[in-house]
Recover the amino acids of this structure.
């Protein structure tokens, strides 16, 4: 093993190109993963922040918030179900907001206004008073500050931002959190086609007492007027979430296979080159497994080095990308999982050389001119 | 030294399967090398001297016959046991003296120990390496890489490496083949000196007359048979 | 060439791994190119391939069709603008629809009140709608004579049924099955799904310039006509839809990285192979082989290996494009195949030049001085 490390130190040149290739692959993996994380984070934040167990849609909405409508009667049915601890209404409307206070401004911020009753993480238990909202911190990059009045939509309905909350974006847009009353008023003024009555909400968020059968009980109690999902299930049902995850994971998978093939190729070549050397080392008492451990050690070191540079590049890329350009996020978890995937690929790639290393005959060291 | 011979081969036979044919590389070879004896092994190429040397050093197992190395019969050892034998009991000096091109002289000596498993390592490898380098007149070259050493110095390093594990027997594979005659002479002298001063037995495969002169005994091998 | 072929035959595993690596990379690049194209088409194909050269959104819509609302004053301003030939009110929304077998699915419905404006430019089969309730559907999702119903969301609402009479390719919006119909049918659908709706306003105004008026000139005039107006050409409306630029940029970074990996892998491989056989090459040079012959033999190998990688990668890609992914169509794109093949072959050959230089530098004299030796 020390021999392998020494070779890396003394002859970095011969490992340089392989390291550069693996660095690019590491960066690719991290970029793909970070892109997926960024996309998902920016489309699911509002749901992930829910401190509830279930989301209840109307059954004809096909689990789409904007199409779902739940009226007071259905809500009363849901509240009556055993195991339901608390029920809150949820409504949303996507509108452009003008942060400057100038109604003629063409400089808009994409927002989605939520009306809530059961407070998600980081929001006041009682929703802010009519006409005021708590904004997602991502909107700060768009010129929204505490005290800013946003003019929403074509009606320029004013809402005043009183504070900020982290990580609650929805469908790629910064969210605003207010009362159901604020949401109804803003929707009526700006989206008459989506306007709802005073007892109507888009969905219900439900806190349960923990029983597993509650979603089915709710849907039974409403005679099929509702479709109840766990919060995790509702997140998966958000438009594009499961498709994005599946697509990116497949691309990441094939990229890992490429890393495996590159490592396999590189070390297979290096092993061929070392056949004579391995013969001599075996002749003086090195075992096949010891030599193979050396190969694996080199692959692991090269991979770690590539991962470190790749991670550094990913983090700088994250910092360099202006907010809103590419939804890329370099999280520790993603970087770590990419490194682990690469290490697995590297070790598996080395396995291609195992047979060759073990097969080298120590007797070849003598009589062949070494 | 003691009376136990460094090597004792009795009726050693080695055959290879080539297709359906059996090729006899070595046939009923008997050879005994005393505990501090230097034996030169000569013969035309293909005569079996490499095979004999490989069996003596635990690189190959004989098809028949017994091989006793410093009192232990190694003829039926497993590949794993033979690996241990090579690491602890035998020294090798190969034709190519440049064992691992990216190692310094001292590292070349210590690497033998490093290749052992953690448990099998000796604690004093560094000290022994320094001592050997000192004895071989290489103390001030310890940190040099092969590119910074002369041909003779490289040969000394190779001998030092072969002696690291205090072997009962050192095998030399054409030690002078890549050296000019003057340097060859010096190296041969050096080998004799080092072997005799330590009382270590040596077998040298060669076709170089200078070696046969310094050897205690010359064994000729032809067509797999030892012609005494 | 004889030597080059022999060598590859002898070391099938090594050369095979390289072919595999290149093939996988080619496959990844082409698959992702198809994915990008498929995604963009599924997102904005309905805008790209509709007949109105100009779309006027409200500034508030931020270039998202569904987010834009055109209040009457804005519509008036658009209609009054000089150079407007024809103008249609355009409504679009996504609905839950019921199929005849009772199952529910999603559909985007686009309605316009001028026949021939804001409808698919070309039909792949069937005919244009003639009466209310008829529609042209995206051909990836619908068949002729399919019927879908927007169910009534309450006792006061009336369900609306649409019949597919024509089909068009690449006209989806937001990765959703899409139907193009008249504005009245669209409005009825909105009221069916939300009886509380007070008023159904158009989402955009589709405009065809008057004869002799340039599209760019008209969009400028329209945008200036009202502070609420955001006039875009067809291609601007598609390219500047929210998310489209992000998808493009993200994929460009990915392509750049993959594009760098391919030549590096090829270059590294041939450099190592060349170093490994430098002894043999020296002997060949000593025997009288010209450096240029050896270099050509190496480049021949590069062409064969990269070529095989391309063939295998393209074959993988071709089989992927035959798989029905459901939510989007991955199409075999001969131009992409050609462009990437030429690019990757050129990059592969370029990267092998390092190895070629090494071959040309070999001095045949080394063979006689025992250069190997140790």
């Amino acid at each position: 093993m020390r021999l392998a490390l020494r070779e890396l130190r003394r002859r970095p040149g011969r490992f340089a190109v392989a390291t550069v290739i693996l660095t690019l692959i590491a960066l690719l993996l991290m970029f793909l993963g970070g892109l997926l994380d960024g996309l998902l984070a920016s489309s699911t934040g509002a749901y992930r922040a829910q401190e509830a167990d279930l989301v209840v849609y109307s059954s004809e909405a096909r689990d789409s918030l904007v199409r779902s409508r739940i009226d007071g009667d259905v809500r009363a049915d849901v509240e009556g179900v055993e195991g339901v601890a608390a029920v809150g209404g949820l409504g949303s409307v996507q509108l452009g907001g003008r942060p400057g206070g100038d109604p003629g401004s063409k400089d808009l911020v994409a927002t989605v206004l939520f009306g809530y009753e059961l407070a998600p993480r980081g929001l006041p238990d009682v929703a802010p008073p009519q006409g005021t909202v708590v904004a997602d911190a991502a909107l700060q990059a768009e010129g929204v500050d505490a005290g800013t009045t946003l003019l929403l939509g074509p009606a320029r309905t004013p809402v005043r931002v009183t504070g900020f909350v982290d990580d609650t974006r929805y469908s790629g847009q910064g969210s605003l959190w207010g009362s159901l009353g604020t949401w109804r008023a803003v929707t009526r003024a700006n989206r008459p086609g989506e306007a709802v009555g005073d007892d109507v909400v888009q969905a219900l968020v439900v806190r349960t007492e923990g029983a597993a059968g509650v979603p089915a009980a709710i849907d039974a109690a409403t005679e099929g007027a509702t479709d109840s999902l766990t919060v995790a299930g509702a997140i998966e049902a958000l438009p594009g979430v499961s498709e994005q995850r599946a697509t990116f994971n497949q691309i990441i998978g094939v990229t890992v296979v490429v890393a495996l093939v590159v490592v396999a190729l590189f070390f297979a070549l290096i092993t061929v080159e070392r056949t004579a050397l391995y013969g001599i080392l075996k002749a003086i008492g090195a075992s096949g497994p010891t030599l193979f451990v050396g190969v694996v050690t080199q692959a692991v070191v090269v991979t770690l080095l590539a991962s470190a540079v790749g991670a550094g590049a990913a983090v700088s890329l994250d910092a360099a990308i202006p907010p809103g350009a590419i939804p890329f996020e370099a999280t520790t978890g993603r970087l770590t999982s990419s490194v682990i995937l690469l290490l697995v690929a590297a070790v598996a790639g080395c396995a291609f050389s195992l047979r060759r290393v073990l097969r080298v005959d120590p007797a070849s060291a003598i009589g062949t001119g070494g | 030294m003691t009376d136990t011979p460094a090597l004792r081969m009795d009726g050693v036979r080695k055959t290879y399967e080539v297709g359906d044919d059996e090729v006899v590389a070595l046939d009923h070879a008997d050879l005994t090398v005393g505990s501090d004896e230097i034996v030169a092994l000569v013969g035309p190429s293909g005569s079996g001297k490499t095979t004999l040397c490989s069996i003596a050093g635990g690189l190959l197992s004989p098809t028949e016959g017994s091989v006793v190395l410093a009192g232990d019969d190694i003829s039926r050892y497993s590949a794993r046991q033979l690996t241990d034998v090579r690491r602890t009991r035998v020294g090798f000096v190969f034709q190519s003296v440049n064992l691992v091109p990216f190692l310094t002289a001292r590292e070349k000596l210590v690497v033998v120990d490093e290749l052992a498993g953690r448990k099998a390592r000796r604690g004093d490898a560094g000290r022994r390496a320094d001592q050997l380098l000192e004895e071989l007149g290489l103390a001030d070259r310890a940190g040099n890489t092969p590119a910074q050493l002369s041909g003779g110095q490289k040969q000394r390093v190779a001998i030092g490496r072969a002696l690291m594990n205090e072997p009962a027997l050192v095998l030399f594979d054409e030690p002078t083949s890549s050296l000019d005659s003057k340097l060859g002479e010096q190296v041969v002298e050096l080998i004799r000196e080092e072997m005799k001063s330590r009382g270590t037995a040596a077998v040298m495969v060669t076709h170089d007359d200078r070696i046969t002169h310094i050897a205690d005994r010359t064994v000729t091998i032809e067509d797999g048979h030892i012609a005494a | 060439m004889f030597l080059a072929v022999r060598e590859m035959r002898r070391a099938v595993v090594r050369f095979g791994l390289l072919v595999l690596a290149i093939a996988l990379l080619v496959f990844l690049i082409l698959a992702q190119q198809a994915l990008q194209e498929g995604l963009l088409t599924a997102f904005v194909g309905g805008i790209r391939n509709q007949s109105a050269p100009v779309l006027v959104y409200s500034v508030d819509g931020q270039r998202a069709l569904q987010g834009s609302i055109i209040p009457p004053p804005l519509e008036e301003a658009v209609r009054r603008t000089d150079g407007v030939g024809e103008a249609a009110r355009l409504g679009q929304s996504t609905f839950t629809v019921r199929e005849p077998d009772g199952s529910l699915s999603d559909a985007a419905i686009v309605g316009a009140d001028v026949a021939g404006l804001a409808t698919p430019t070309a039909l792949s089969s069937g005919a244009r709608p003639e009466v209310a309730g008829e529609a042209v559907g995206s051909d990836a999702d619908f068949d002729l004579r399919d019927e879908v119903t927007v169910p009534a969301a309450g006792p006061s609402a009336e369900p609306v049924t649409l019949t597919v009479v024509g089909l068009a390719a690449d006209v989806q919006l937001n990765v959703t099955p899409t139907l193009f119909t008249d504005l009245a049918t669209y409005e009825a659908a909105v009221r069916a799904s939300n009886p509380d709706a007070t008023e159904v306003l158009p989402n955009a105004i589709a405009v065809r310039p008057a004869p002799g008026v340039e599209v760019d000139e008209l969009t400028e005039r329209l945008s200036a006509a009202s502070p609420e107006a955001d006039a875009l050409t067809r291609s601007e409306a598609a390219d500047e839809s929210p998310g489209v630029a992000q998808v493009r940029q993200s994929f460009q970074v990915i392509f750049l990285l993959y594009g760098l990996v391919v030549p590096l892998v090829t270059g590294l491989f041939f450099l190592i192979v060349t170093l490994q056989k430098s002894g043999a090459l020296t002997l060949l040079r000593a025997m009288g082989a010209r450096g240029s012959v050896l270099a050509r033999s190496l480049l021949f190998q590069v062409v064969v290996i990269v070529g095989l990688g391309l063939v295998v990668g393209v074959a993988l890609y071709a089989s992927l494009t035959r798989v029905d992914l459901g939510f989007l169509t991955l199409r075999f794109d001969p131009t992409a195949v050609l462009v990437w093949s030429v690019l990757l072959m050129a990059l592969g050959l370029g990267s092998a030049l390092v190895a070629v230089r090494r071959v040309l530098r070999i001095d045949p004299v080394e063979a006689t001085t025992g250069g190997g030796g140790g």
